[in-house]
Amino acid sequence: MNDDTTQGKRGEDKGAAEDGAAVFLERDALQTLLALLQSGGYRLVGPQVRDGAIVYETLGGAEQLPRGWHDEQAPGRYRLHYDPASPRLFAWANGPQALKPLVFAPRELLWEAHRDETGNLRFQDCLPSGERIAVIGVRACDLAALALQDAHFLEGPFPDAAYHRRRTGLFLVAVDCSHPAETCFCAATGDGPRVEAGKGAAWDLRLQELEAGFLVEAGSRAGAAYLARLPARAATEAERAAALAQAQAAVARQTRRLPAPGPSAGAPCHDAAGLAGALTARHDHPHWHDVAQRCLACGNCTAVCPTCFCAGDEEVPDLAGTASRHYRQWDSCFTAAHSYIHGIVIRAETRHRYRQWLTHKLDTWHAQYGRSGCVGCGRCITWCPAGIDLTAEAEALVP
Amino acid sequence: MIDIDDSLPETPSRRHPVRSPWLAEIVERREEARDIFTLRLRLCREAARSRYRFQPGQFNMLYLFGVGEVPISIVSDPEDEALLDHTIRVVGRVTRGLAQLRAGDRLGIRGPFGRGWPVQAAEGRDVMVITGGLGCAPSVSVIDYIARRRERFGHLTIMQGVKHHHDLLWRERYEAWGRQPGTTVLLAADQGGPVWPWHVGPVTGLFDQAPVSPGRTVAMLCGPEGMMQAVVRELRARGVADRDIWLSMERNMHCAVGLCGHCQFGPHFVCRNGPVFPLAEIADLFGVRGI
Ligand SMILES: Cc1cc2nc3c(=O)[nH]c(=O)nc-3n(C[C@H](O)[C@H](O)[C@H](O)COP(=O)(O)OP(=O)(O)OC[C@H]3O[C@@H](n4cnc5c(N)ncnc54)[C@H](O)[C@@H]3O)c2cc1C
Ligand code: SF4
Ligand code: SF4
Ligand code: FES
């Protein structure tokens, strides 16, 4: 079997399956897929319960998946509940992180400088190993966010080599969201809850979880090759109908949305101009003061957001003075250092920083990347200690 | 290291040292004033020299071993490809360390980055270079560029404002530029003194002596944002269009290649879309506090 397709041009053949091509796989057969991926050379990364949250970490096997776990999310609040009677593995909405750390590392070595006795310098680029990772249970919002990170890190004039290497090693097993959280609004942004071909980053396999198992379809040649080796059977009409009803219920459960002013009102804001220009035009709106009274400028929102891309460089010399390492790590526009230029902090007040974050995400992102920078995952709402909800702030600014 | 990951798509970055810097040697160090010095650099490797091309107004990231990188404009002439001059003011960690270096010492360069001054578009037109503050390096590159190609441009007006008369750098250079045909040099100091023969007051006070012809004049501004705002008001009042007013912007920078997000200015990445912008592109942002 040739599963080298993910090594080729990113996603050239992914996400191409036609809807309705799904087959049925018993829940226990998921382990067969995981074992095949492992023997195909992939490290598995998948959701697990750790310290009261569902996080994506190295996965030994299907038994570590969060079977029976459900989440409850609200502004500033995240709780897990265990239901021993539930056979489901993916009956929860996204936790604080998923794909972003796998492609845009929280901290990484970019290069090293070496100095010899004569004072001469030598530079050495440092790149990640090019490890192949299969991610199990990727949600539609994170596929959309991955497409945005691809646009930022790969499609500009200076593509990032480390991101490129990590990205080409990914095999994506996506899953439709059946249990959106109260904070989710991906239906309104047009990014979820269903995983669809041609929307967001391309995927290799797509799962729809039902009570007894999964509907599975392939979105790439590599995905199809794995699917062909699984003990799947044709899906029944009833199974298809159940999946469709579940998808519709997942949409209906979502209540939040971003304002979409102007002629495009009502359209998913990612197809329309959304808030492009609208927040910049309201830079002196009194509401920025209002939100700044509540915002702690902690930067949690930027840390959990799957599209935030800010990073800071840090130089770490060794004690001997012969080598120095140049790192890059996640940064946040909520810090004073982010906008520092000798003696001046440009965004001196919290209202400037919240304004920068929200305006960049919902307004100027359009000019940079052709759509909003928000995929409706709701993470910044859940993980804000002050419970600030960007959809409500946007609504207050652009009623 | 010069070699770039060959699996990456062909882009302008293939000419650049995007990750680790290129090695450069200090050919000469010149003291300009207290805490201001010029480093003349030469790329050490032939392969780097042959790839390196820049425009006035572009900048390099200079890397000091063990301390870090800072954005610094290139002030030498683009036709002197082999030698790259950088005039640096000591303000903090990296610049203080760079000030300790001597001829023969080595450092790293990444660059050139960004959009420079519109020197091609300005050919055949009158140019006003208006600067404020201490030794505004980016403006020197464009003045020198025009001075050496005098016949290609119309009238050149140089307006420089400083706080104290003793802040004026390169007095002889201003005097020499002023002796060139078709060139007017106007200087202003908020606080003059016995040896200050020029205007006392803000740089905007010089406009009464400066001929401006809307449609023909291209203005190039560099300095603190407050000063540039005042100058923009004068230029607009005299009928100069926003597309003919160019400003060199400054923001915090780490990567210089449009990835780290530090230099964002509205939808723009100053490192990549700037640092030089026509006012028409940034009119809704320019002068707004905290953007
Ligand atoms: C496009 C551009 C061109 C420039 N050209 C020149 C020049 O020709 N000559 C010159 O003397 N200075 C120039 N500067 C300013 C120069 O980059 C800063 O003075 C320098 O970064 C200060 O670093 P430091 O470590 O000495 O100071 P610190 O105050 O210790 O700064 C700490 C860090 O903050 C950041 N930082 C601080 N000030 C600035 C700043 N003004 N711009 C960007 N990042 C900053 C840097 O990451 C720096 O390492 C330019 C800045 C920009 C953006
Ligand atoms: S802004 Fe908030 S809801 Fe939107 S993508 Fe980022 S974390 Fe998710
Ligand atoms: S909005 Fe909330 S999460 Fe974001 S910086 Fe402010 S307090 Fe922190
Ligand atoms: S300096 Fe990093 S994006 Fe401009």
Could you explain how this protein is built, in words?
The complex is a heterodimer of chains A (399) and B (291). With 399 residues, chain A is an alpha+beta fold. Chain A contains 13 helices and 16 strands. Chain A has helices at 30-39, 100-103, 140-154, 161-168, 186-189, 221-228, 237-252, 278-281, 287-294, 300-304, 350-369, 379-382, 390-397, and strands at 23-26, 43-50, 53-58, 69-74, 77-82, 107-115, 121-125, 133-138, 170-175, 205-209, 213-218, 233-234, 311-317, 323-330, 340-341, 344-345. In chain A, the strands form four sheets. Chain A has an eight-stranded mixed sheet, sandwiched between helices. Chain A has a four-stranded antiparallel sheet with strand order 7-6-14-13, with no helix packed on it. The longest helix of chain A is centred in the C-terminal third of the chain and has 20 residues, at 350-369. Chain A is globular. Chain A starts with 22 loop residues before the first strand and ends with a helix. Residues 1-12, 15-19 and 263-271 of chain A have low confidence and may be disordered. Chain B has seven helices and 15 strands. In chain B, strand 1 (22-33) and strand 2 form a beta hairpin. Chain B is globular. A seven-stranded mixed sheet of chain B has the order 10-9-8-7-11-12-15, sandwiched between helices. By secondary structure, chain B is α/β, with parallel strands linked by helices. Chains A and B meet through strand 6, strand 7, helix 3, helix 4 and strand 13 of A and strand 6 of B. The structure holds flavin-adenine dinucleotide, iron/sulfur cluster (2 copies) and FE2/S2 (inorganic) cluster (FES). One iron/sulfur cluster (SF4) binds at residues 304-307, 361, 374-380, 390 of chain A.
